[in-house]
Amino acid sequence: MQTQDCDTQRDRFAQGKPLWARAIATPATEFGPTSLPLLSGQVPTGLRGTLYRNGPGRLSRQGQTVDHWFDGDGGILAVRFGPEETTASYRYVQTQELQTEEAKDQFLYSGYGQMAPGPLWKRWGVPPKNVANTSVLALPDKLLALWEGGNPHALDSITLETHGLETLSGLTAKLTYSAHPKRDPQTGTIYNFGVIFGPKTYLQIYCSHASGDIDRQASILLPGLSLVHDFVLAGRYLVFIVPPLRLQMLPVMLGTKSLSDALQWQPHQGTQIIVIDRDTFEEVTRFETDPWFQWHFGNGYEDTVGHIVLDYVRYPDFQTNQWLKEVVTGYPQTPALGMLWQLHINPQTGQVLQNEQRFSLGCEFPVVSPLETGQETTALYLTHHSHSQQPVEEMFDCIARIDSQTSGVVSMAFPSGCYPMEAIYAPDPTSSDQGWLLTVVFDGNQDQSTVQIFSADQLDAGPIAVLGLPEIIPFGFHGTWQAAE
Ligand SMILES: [Fe+2]
User: Fold this and answer.
1) pLDDT digit string, tens, across residues 265-304
2) Which of 112, 216, 322, 337 counts the highest number of beta carbons within 10 A?
3) How far is the CA of 189 from the centre of ligand 1 (A)?
4) CA of 84 to the centre of ligand 1 (A)
């Protein structure tokens, strides 16, 4: 065993927690524009633009920890790759709720898994806290911090100053806007949706101009109170896959259960697949298939005979939600591995044609080049567990490229105690089939976060540049790349 591995093991034994837990042990520290030291390699001259990432920056206050990882206050990291230097900033999204809690220095609101303190009746009719912590959408004149339970927050793209809730000229306070919008790479048109709870549950689907302003919207009835986190743009279609989860509304309304705890896994309901024509928003087909749960899709496309092909990370049940809840303890114990699957469906007949696992290791955060959204891709990228990891308690320690034609896998394993977040694809403006993968890595041995750049088609060559960040960046969820004008 190498010395570094021995040190890692000793540290783990001493603390009883895996090293990644250090990254979320204390609230993130904000910092303004800071020049990043180049620790190794060289930043490619063609890489010009900004990497934005979002995630729960604050999980505790006055010794109290939130009840679910999804309830941490959103913090935005912006890394700007300029001609002279690379700089970074980190700012919390200044939601109204965060400012109120800051003023009293205590948690006051219910959330996805969090229950507000105090008597039961004080929770009645109070909406959950908008934590603005899940992803970002970079628009020409603003940055949106996204959270699927409410409206997005608008931020200044440069300073990360929060301007407030954003309607995109079409959202009302009752409408929600998910954290997984899809942008057509040819037209810039943006598609998204929200799940609207009420006497009837429905998907509100949106089509926006490249500016972000909503041009069209429509309502699609859902079979019940379920959780839909992501969707697929595939050629002419939008595909929604509704897992067999049902929300027990009464305990949520009475304030006796959180949303997270009130979601029941009901596999007998089956998974419902809904295909929508993206031009008319009319329903093309709707049918049921085997029960599974997914948070995320990789991408989708129409093949040469008009069938829809899509990649997703499949879980056998909803235990993944318990694992995500336990992340805040730094020592999750509930097994919940997601695996990459590929689904083929016939949108005309409403049939599953094929549904198979593509990759043998637990994984998440599938991404593709933004130039290939909705069409057949060259490759898919994801974060995954190495063979040697103990996945139940561990965060991912590898990133991989899976070739779409050959299914060949090229993987990059990080050193022991180092954990990459979701890898973001930045296209090379000088070569349409080339690009870079950008990821933020937490090194638990050094208590340091870095930004690492890889050639997307040569991951196993290691990072071509590593830049040091001035503070630890807690594990986050999603990000985006905005190329310089
Ligand atoms: Fe997500």
Assistant:
1) 999 999 999 999 999 999 999 999 999 999 999 999 999 9
2) 112
3) 20
4) 33
Q: With beta carbons less than 8 A apart as the criterion, state whether 386 and 361 touch.
A: yes
Supply the range of the domain harboring residue 297.
Answer: 3-483
Which CATH number is 288's domain given?
Answer: 2.130.10.10
Give the single-character DSSP code of 324.
Answer: H
- The alpha carbon of 177 and the centre of ligand 1 are apart by a number of angstroms equal to 13
- Cα(121) to centroid(ligand 1), Å: 32
- 463 vs 439: CA distance, rounded Å: 10
Residue 11 binned pLDDT confidence (cut-offs 50, 70, 90): low
d(CA 479, ligand 1 centre) in Å:
10
CA of 295 to the centre of ligand 1 (A): 6
- CA of 231 from ligand 1 middle (Å) equals 10
Neighbouring C-beta atoms of residue 83, cutoff 10 Å: 7
- Look at the alpha carbons of 412, 414, 420, 425 in this order and tell me if their dihedral is positive or negative: negative
Instruction: Output the DSSP codes for 163-176.
Output: EEE--TTT--TT--
Total tally of structural domains belonging to the chain: 1
Ligand 1 centroid vs 137 CA: distance in angstroms?
Answer: 13
CB 311, CB 340: distance < 8 Å: yes
Give the distance (Å) from ligand 1 centre to CA of residue 191: 15
103 φ, ψ (degrees, to nearest 5):
-65, -35
DSSP secondary structure of 357-419: E--SS-EEEEE--GGGTTS--SEEEEEE--TTS-TTT----EEEEEETTT--EEEEEPPTTEE
Residue indicated by tokens 């998907």? 203
Q: Are 144 and 166 in contact (CB under 8 A)?
A: yes
Q: What is the pLDDT of residue 5?
A: 46
179 CA to middle of ligand 1, Å?
A: 7
Distance 333 CA to ligand 1 centre (A): 21
177-201 pLDDT, tens digit per residue, is: 999 999 999 999 999 999 998 888 9
